[in-house]
UniProtKB/TrEMBL annotation:
It comes from Actinomadura namibiensis. One of its GO terms (cellular component) is ribonucleoprotein complex. It is found in: Cytoplasm. This is TROVE domain-containing protein. InterPro entries: TROVE2, TROVE_dom, TROVE_dom_sf, vWFA_dom_sf. Keywords: Cytoplasm, Metal-binding, Ribonucleoprotein, RNA-binding.
Amino acid sequence: MAKFNRSRMTGALSAVTSRRAPGARTHEGAPGYARDTKSELFLLSVANMVGERTFYEDAGDRDARFRTLVGEVALADVDWLTRMVGWLRDSAGMRSASVVAAAEGVMSRLCAEMDGGNRQLVAAALRRADEPGELLAYWHGRYGRSLPSPVKRGVADAVRRLYTERSLVKYDTGDFRFGDVIELVHPRPETPAQGDLFRHAIDRRHGRGEEIPESLTVLRARARLLALPPDERRALLDRPDAERVLADAGMTWESLAGWLGGPLSAAFWERIIPSMGYLALLRNLRNLDRAGVSDEVAERVAARLSDPGRVARSRVLPMRYLAAYRAVESLRWAWPLHQALDASLGNVPALPGRTLVLVDRSGSMFGRMSARSELTSADAAAVFGSALALRAEDATLVQFGTGHAPVPFRRGESVLKVVERFGDLGGTNTAAAVRAHYRDHDRVVIVTDEQAWGGHHGEEPAKAVPERVPVYTWNLVGYRHGHGPSGAGTRHTFGGLSDAAFAMIPLIERGAAADWPF
């Protein structure tokens, strides 16, 4: 028996809405449900690694669809688009998609001669000091060197907020250097010291930055370190004040590695670890092991990695912990990575009653998320599906493709261990998996790309589930047509590569509207 009032779930609304009847086909021939423009854009945005092909869409087609959707929404509701872009950058961690959305939204509005909101749309996408240059590089590549006033002003707003001595040290690279950006958008400095920084960035870009102003203390300290003879540099690591000296000079682990030259020793890592960022530590666990970092130092690193507050502030996507777990060679990182992954899934609710969780392991899910990553949509689906099953009161966890099979797990197990039990199951026979495993569950959750196989009868995947029972689809790729209706009653679709979507389920089951997450 269900442990909550089913009748309250039937009228809830959610943000991603579709037509109530199919009007197209999925890529594998099942009935396809078209979504409204905002819904299609949202689902594509939260999964769109710009310039990357997916199983069913090449990069050019996918990017063109994204630009078209952005342009339409920019004309209809620029405030909504600005909120989405800011959320996409800050909470969803989609840097490239937010930059492209801001640029294309502004261009669409300029072509329609629409004022107001354009400057704010640009600024919403820029949160890291290399991103003003990224946006200008994209704009020049698409639309030429002429910069409209709203683009200049939006980028200038971001420059004043983001350009510091330390960001100059770390991010002054690429075709559009800090000096180029400053000369193009003419930002007004917030302080005299920032004015010195702007002038120095321009001088440095043009090869005349030898004289560093007195106000730029970090850059002056860095210059002193760079002037040390190579044979004296490693000796600095043995000084008791080494950590402070390196930090005062804004030396990141990347720049320090180049400064020292040669193999990176345990002493190197032990000195630089206190100043390393969270993601840098996560990416370098294997390097720490290979350098022979002591267990005492490793314990301090593990404490930082597993601290829930640091996990939340880092906004590292859950799949990165899986990537780190697969990359490390020492078991000493297994427990802290488990704790960190668990903390990163803080939005996953402990659902009451009985829950059927179906995880798509079809061939189309095994394309890499980006050219620089070994992770796949199948990995993400396994992580999220396992987390939901482990936290639920009573869950059935199933993997499906052409066939289907239960995935065993025990309460209290690590998500990382459960993920190892998933396989590659071929096609996408979602309907058959639902029919075979639905047994009066209180809800069904399907983690998938929605490109269901049409089968012999073109059956909708959730047809075997009574209308009174909620079915939640979590779309991880963002193709155009979904495998079922969404937005009202008991059928709802969410999207993205973070855990934020799961927070919508308890809202809907309380009879509340689950609006956009921004």
